[in-house]
Amino acid sequence: xxxxHDPRSRGPGSCTLxxxxxxxxxxGLSAVGLTGTISIFAAGGSPGFDTYAYxxxxxxxxxxxxDGFGAFQYTPAALFFVWPVSLLPWPFAFPVWLxxxxxxxxxxxxxWALALLVFLPVPMELFEGNIDLLLALAVLVGFRYPAAWxxxxxxxxxxxxxxxxxxxxxxWRPLAVAIAATALLLAASLLIPGAWTAWWAHITDRxxxxxxxxxxxxxxxxxxxxxxxxxxxxxTDRRWTVIVAATLALPALWLYxxxxxxxxxxxxxxxxxxxxxxxxxAR
Length: 283
Prior knowledge:
Blueprint: H1 12-42, H2 49-56, H3 79-82, H4 90-109, H5 121-128, H6 132-144, H7 149-155, H8 164-168, H9 172-189, H10 195-204, H11 219-236, H12 240-248, H13 264-282
Helix pairs in contact: 4-6, 7-9, 11-12
């Protein structure tokens, strides 16, 4: 009696070869990515362009800088997350923020963290000192702890369209938790005198239109596409669509903004683990 060959089965030789090859890939990509990142920082320019705006929130009136270097664009409620960096002298503030971003990258990429530096938006994000890696981490954590969505909503707002995941799946409790956490931060920010009035004047008086290195596609055009993607993902149980939709819905889409897509890595990792677990249970 002959038995059919199970394509999922692997010989011992393939297993012993797979691990060294994977380690070699991680090492090689990490070396290339780390070298490229060091080159970007060493090339000159002004690292921490966006971090400086966060630091400046503790050194003068909010929204005093209308646009460009030092312009703070987030809502007053975002101060609870970024203001603490202003307590440090600037020469220390950016390294601390860089460390926070690096921790987020490690949390997302695990052993592939350094290898992910070959994806150009990631070292650019580290150089600029923005919050895109932190947004990706918040979206992922938000699947289990929906209150994390408050960080997304009070900073860049429009990526919060990913919350439609819960609405389309009729998961009302996590949606309510996310909204309640956001409302709590918004209420607390009302205690900052004149902050919301200054913010409204700031966003309504800003220059419109794309700038160099920015995707020439307005957010009002991208939002329906992001919502449709989340709707399809929620119906077919594809969590990766939330990360992609949140990235697509960013108010300003820069090249370094695509670093948010690093959030696809842990989703893929959990998907592979799930398939392996279901494969073992089926045997």
